[in-house]
Fold each of these.
Amino acid sequence: MDFLRPASWEEALAAKAEHPTAVPIAGGTDVMVEINFDHRRPEYLLDLNRIGDLYEWEAVEGSVRLGASVPYARIMEHLRTELPGLALASHTVASPQIRNRGGVGGNLGTASPAGDAHPALLAAGAEVEAESVRGTRLIPIDDFYTGVKRNALAPDELIRAVRVHKADGPQQYSKVGTRNAMVIAVCAFGLALHPETRTVRTGIGSAAPTPVRARTAEDFLSAALDEGGWWDNGKVITPSVVKQFADLCAAACNPIDDVRGTAGYRRHAVGVLARRTLTWTWDSYRGTAQQKGMVA
Amino acid sequence: MRVNFTVNGRPQEADDVWEGESLLYVLRERLGLPGSKNACEQGECGSCTVRLDGVPVCSCLVAAGQVEGREVVTVEGLADQARQRARGDARGTSLDEAKALAAGGQESPAGEGTGAFPHAALSPVQQAFIDAGAVQCGFCTPGLLVAADEMLERNPSPTDADIREALSGNLCRCTGYEKIMDAVRLAAARQGEGV
Amino acid sequence: MPSDSAPLGTPSKVTQGSPGSPAQGGIGESTLRPDGTLKVTGEFAYSSDLWHEDMLWGQILRSTVAHAEIVSIDTGEALAQPGVHAVMTYDDLPTEVRNYGLEVQDTPVLAHGKVRHHGEPVAIVAADHPETARRAAAKIKVEYRELPVITDEASATAPGAVLVHENRADHHIGHVPHPNILHRQPIIRGDADEAARRAAVIVKGEYHFGMQDQAFLGPESGLAVPEEDGGVHLYIATQWLHSDLRQIAPVLGLPENKVRMTLAGVGGAFGGREDLSMQIHACLLALRTGRPVKIVYNRFESFFGHVHRHPARLYYEHGATSEGKLTHVKCRIVLDGGAYASASPAVVGNASSLGIGPYAVDDVDIEAIALYTNNPPCGAMRGFGAVQACFAYEAQMDKVARRLGMDPVAFRKLNAMEQGTVMPTGQPVDSPAPVAELLRRVEAMPLPPERQWESSEGVDVRQLPGGLSNTSHGEGVVRGVGYAVGIKNVGFSEGFDDYSTARVRMEVVGGEPVAVVHTAMAEVGQGGVTVHAQIARTELGVARVTIHPADTRVGSAGSTSASRQTYVTGGAVKNSCELVREKVLDLGRRRFGTHHPAWAAAELLLEGGKVVTDGGEVLADLVDVLGDEAVEVEAEWRHRPTEPFDPRTGQGNGHVQYSFAAHRAVVEVDTELGLVKVIELACAQDVGKALNPLSVVGQIQGGTAQGLGIAVMEEIIVDPKTAKVRNPSFTDYLIPTILDTPTIPVDVLELADDHAPYGLRGVGEAPTLSSTPAVLAAIRDATGLELNRTPVRPEHLTGTA
């Protein structure tokens, strides 16, 4: 095993180009577990800790460009306004110690369906900024997850950042685990209202081979909100609409039975989370809208 | 490979480090600092918690090569760090700190502490863990102490919910956590009184 | 080359009590741990912290399948690796003794021709770095021919079932109905069928208890150092040094005096260190290589490295009159012992003899069995057979009460046993049994306020089911309250010669009288060392007590299990102190007897460093009495003998003492998501006499939390088709975090047991019994569901299992 310690992003890209099998390690919260438990013996470890750029975020035209290694602890502390869904998701990650080390880049690189950030990124509508010595490309989050623990990165690419639209409406995130802290998701659900485009987006974790959106549910709800004039009148969404949205979210799951939970439970729980998060976000939207005098 | 870093204020060099080794292994097996514990090596139990550039992390999940040039504080350095913190404090040196400094940081004979006369070489949170009965087998204790000490530095008067959240990454199998809660409350109260 | 130097981390004596201070810190006070300072500074050396110049690292290769013949093992490639010093298999074992076991020696040191469970040790490696050892172990080629797996009672006793152990010759084979049943204990008293006719209601239930792991945090580990005389010194975390020694020495082909054992720091035990883990392997490698060998399991291996709590199926029938008096109980308890015997026979004895709980019932028909299967071996864990039964009989008590329309606590109190009640074994309870009083006390505690998650700043999700995962802001949350009470025996039962040994020495050091207490008791966190120092102060009137490290240079202390150490080794320390006191007084009489008539006449005590009369008159300073002499006594001490249970009727005075605890659980259940938050677990327990109240409460709270774990999250999941463990990690075997554990108010009752030292009662296990059924009862109260298995998972609460 070789340990590569690039001092700059350019050096890191060069190293990855030279050694495409090199495993990037930043927070170490996935890679080191695999090494400690003898599940993995990569030829090269590519340490990203010395690359300061990865630990910073900046505002870019209505989006946040979030460095891949910004620890979850900082996201939940500093980006609650801009990225509320991701901030909530960050707070559910493992433990304080893990949140101090892990960042979104690790979740994306590992691409486990149980990664906590995925549903929030899907719901907010993110782009993954992948870079190699060949150049930079922005991969829409919808195209990023390609299979169980597989993603759209080329072997020579590294994740530089994610670009996430600043929230234009309420966002929520819920995760089910069988413990009240420090738990891997049995399933998770992210929901973002986008009043500017009058759309809603969702993200589901741990309930399919990859993180997924519940597109049928999104389309249904967007149409229902339009039809009812609810974006404008700010009325309470009728229970039947909420229920159908929840049912469609549950139907978007393609879960398995495993030691963490049954497929049936996951489908059921995603439905409950969809219903609750819709209620919370819509209540919040109505509250904000009323304050702004937008609602009749 | 060779790794140079600072542990508890002292420069350290570890040689012939295997690239897959964790910071925890280097501390325990190469630097003779076994205070950080190896209970799960998967970031679930917090027994190996150390501060890396001031931030609590699981040292089992930090690759040894990643600490090059960085600063680590382990349970073995907690008392020193508490003394430094107290020295840097505008209030000046408290009586106990002065005693501890006068003792040159040497261990007094192992024995029971009391609230009135804390063991001079212990930090307030260490003393509180002894006094409150928060130590049974003690295997989780070093990690809990590092985590609790850092929380009290950030949040000197935590609510119970704050304490529970801050310590939710540290498993204890012996105590049922009640005495640990008592210990952290006690340390916060003593800190508040300037003891 | 053999080394005589001690490894880094060798335990040293710890002295507690400042010179010149008054002799406080006797029994009944909450003195602090003598090892506390070492433990908070990180200096306390656990078995995984030991280090020796030139030491090698041992690694175990374990079976990847549960049941198979071993066709071949090829170690050639592993041995050829640079840095590898030894590879050993069954064929390399030095003597004909190649099995070990606590009671039945059925466990191969290394697999011989066959593996019987997933993770069984097959080969061992010593190398100069743990990674080298791991890589070498991975290069050992083992060819398996898989056999069908026995996984439950049906497959174990099916016609033509494969036998887990062929040609059994143990002493249980004569009274079991099938060779795949390790042990069977019936207990018959009165006539349950006849009594059933008097019942107004009869309630039947079938229950399932999951496999729990001790999950001590300090992994199995130790260091074996070869010695000049051809022997070996093993520094080890264990629960019973001498039991280990008896099993280790014959396999090594060494006399017991050439296997020296020193207790290294123990990171928790809870029963999981009663059996051997890496002890023999480390010694074998050390003797083979002539180098010190350290073995440290990681968490994955730890799940295979020790026995677990028996999963159980329990079938119960309770009857009661319309007034609420129990008429009879029938039950059948099937414990899965897994592949090897471990402590299963004794667990069967407990499950059966305590199978109806702390209730007075004259007509009972009980049967408990332990199976041999290809599941992971099960054995000792805190509560030891009584835990599984308590879960079931307390569920039954709630069901009967509901059928009768009675309050569940009132129904329990009506049937509660008391001093004088006769157990199903025919043994009368001859010390206080305040079962009704404990229930009354937990019921009387104030309830925690409702809706604690609401604050002026909105919802605090940390106070809700789901916690930080933000699953509910109050939606679907229903509160429930449940009660349970349990009974646990204290000490080793069924005629076992349960004794301990203490060596106590008194001498003057630095102008102060000092007592040195030396036992082989395994301090595993319970605070035995604290109590020993307190006893020595009380009995010998000294301030300073030195606790000598535990080792095999002193006689056996018995196991740190069965809630017995304060009773038995505490009793031994007290006894040896009393003998030392007599010798000291003899010395005083010889030296000063002529100075004062009271030396001859009065009852003399040692107090505050002085010899005093019972009237308080000071006769001499201990410093003067002792002079340059050291007074030392090593003596064995045993509790009252017990008897075996009759193999057909289960009658016999099998237990020496009982321990009782009651719990009230308050839970909040998110009924839509099936998530549970335990809000409070109040406990009342009779401890006879609290030698150290702080430690007693700590034990009760810790035991309570372990009971909470098996109620709502902890379970080793074994695939029923392959008998392989599916969740051997702390990622998927979940134990409660500080956010899962509620406040645990404790009400300690002290009703002396006159047969026990100071009237004390063993404390450690009872709270683990009643905690689980109390939580289950509370969840049933919140949800209205029947819930016949534990742990309860969200699936069970949402109909999606």
Note: The mean pLDDT of chain C is 97.
Amino acid sequence: MCGWGVRGAGSVGGVIEFVRNVRLWFAPARIEEEGVTPDYRFSLANERTFLAWLRTSLALIGGGFAVDQFLPDLRWEWRAGLALGLLAAGVLCALRSVNHWVRCERAMRRGEDLPVSRFPALLSIGVALVALAMVVVVLAGWES
Amino acid sequence: MTVRDPGLQPERTRLAWRRTTLAATVAAVLAGKSALREGPGVTALVVCALCCGLWLGFLAVAHRRIRALSGSVPPQAFTPRHASTAALCTIALAVCAAALVF
């Protein structure tokens, strides 16, 4: 469902591609062998995009902590469900940030188009659902 | 520094690292507050120490990168190893948070 799934959503190809990318995360030499080194400004822009996604991830994790902490009157299932939903979104966001960074870097080296992704749309739908659930739960007063 | 980049790309990237460190600090403070909510027990202190360690790990990556970016132009390349370390610190923080929910 994330960036790596775009080429074939739910297909085996997507999984293989992701595993290959994971190997690249820890083998910096391999990415430098391919193609030509792009203009450093493009690499820095890619790095800033990575950091922006990481901040999004940290904000979602902070939101998870906040739900757990600042809604103590909520029923436990709701509190845990909302908190875990936000935390899971944060983890996905962090994983995807590295993966997308690697893919963009490689595309720039090979002179290909930058990868497209449906992850931002899925993430915004997920966050909207959590926000809606939070409004409903707090307004309806389903408290313990 | 040999050449001045008119787009201030290294500076902007450095500031992006600072912002991210700030976000990590906020998340770590919330984690500490969450861990110590029910008084200082053994579990609470262990989770708190773990979160502090993760925060320090993140800080180390950010510091190293900021140093690299304030050096020569063009700066050293950002390696996948650094990217994954930063992301893994974030993920571990989320795992700590999930453990605290239960």
Note: The mean pLDDT of chain A is 82.
